[in-house]
């Protein structure tokens, strides 16, 4: 279940003490009221995430700008960050030896 569907279902969010809010749509072209709401949530740039307490006030603000943001619980946020970290993890180094191969005695 993605974060937006979870928000619409209100299943995990109702029990989570913290909400992680990510701005996924641009601010230009939005209504002034929505821009002011995003400013109050401290969301200024796309793909930035902020953590807010799960209060009725914050949930009302999120309801107002729900098409611009994605809401995640703490567990969902940590799982997404872990998945991104695993995806970008460094591979073990490739060891290449540039030393000449040892000469075999069978050539004599």
Can you walk me through this structure?
This protein is an alpha+beta fold. It has four helices and three strands; from the N terminus they run H-E-H-E-H-E-H. It has a three-stranded antiparallel beta sheet. The longest helix is centred in the last third of the chain and has 14 residues. It is elongated, with a radius of gyration of 24 Å. The relative contact order is 0.20. The model has no long low-confidence stretch (mean pLDDT 76).
Task: List the topology elements.
Elements (H helix, E strand, L loop, with lengths): L2 H7 L8 E6 L8 H9 L8 E5 L2 H9 L4 E5 H14 L21
Antiparallel strand pairs: 1-2, 1-3
Précis, in short:
The chain is α+β, with helices and mostly antiparallel strands. The protein is built from four helices and three strands; from the N terminus they run H-E-H-E-H-E-H. The longest helix is centred in the last third of the chain and has 14 residues.
List key phrases describing it.
elongated, single chain, alpha+beta, three-stranded antiparallel β-sheet, 108 residues, 4 helices
Low-confidence stretches: none
End-to-end distance, in Å? 70 Å
- Per DSSP, the total helix count is 4
Largest sheet features: 3 strands, antiparallel
Mean pLDDT: 76
Approximately how much helix is present in the residues? 25-40%
What portion of residues belong to β-strands? 5-15%
Rg (C-alpha, Å): 24 Å
The quaternary structure here is single chain
Structural class: alpha+beta
The rough form would be described as elongated
The ordered string of helix (H) and strand (E) elements is HEHEHEH
Total strands: 3
Strand adjacency order, main sheet = 2-1-3
């Amino acid at each position: 279940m993605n974060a937006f569907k979870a928000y619409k279902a209100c299943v995990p969010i109702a029990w989570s003490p913290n909400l992680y809010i990510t701005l996924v749509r641009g601010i230009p072209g939005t209504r002034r009221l929505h821009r002011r709401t995003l400013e109050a949530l401290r969301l200024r740039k796309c793909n930035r995430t902020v953590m807010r307490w799960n209060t009725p006030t914050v949930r009302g603000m999120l309801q107002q700008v729900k098409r611009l943001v994605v809401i995640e619980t703490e567990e969902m946020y940590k799982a997404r960050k872990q998945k991104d970290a695993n995806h970008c993890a460094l591979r073990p180094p490739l060891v290449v030896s540039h030393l000449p191969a040892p000469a075999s005695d069978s050539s004599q």
